[in-house]
Amino acid sequence: MSAVESFLDDLAARGMRVHSLLVHRGGATTLDLWQWPHEPDLKHKLHSATKSFTATAVGFAEAEGLLDLEDPVVKFFELPEPPGENLSRMRVRDLLTMRTGHARGLSGATTRLRKTGWAGEFLEEPVVERPGRTFRYSSTTSHVLSAIVQEVAGEPVDEYLRPRLFEPLGITDYDWERDPDGVSSGGNGLSLRSRDLLSFGVLYLQDGVWEGERVLPAGWVRKASAPHVLRAVSGEWNGKELLSAGPDAVANSGYGYQFWTNKDGSYAASGLFGQECMVFPDQDAVVVVTGAMPDPEYHDLPRMLREAFRRVFAEPSENLDRRIERAREPEPLDAPGERPVFARTYDFEANEQGVRSLSVEATADSVRLGVEDDRGTHTLDHGLEKWVRQRTGVSVGRLHHSYQDDAAPILAGAKWAGDELELTWHFLEGPFIDRLTLRFEGDDVVLDHRTNVNSGPTALPPARGTVRA
Question: Is the pTM for the entire model greater than 0.85?
Answer without folding.
Answer: yes
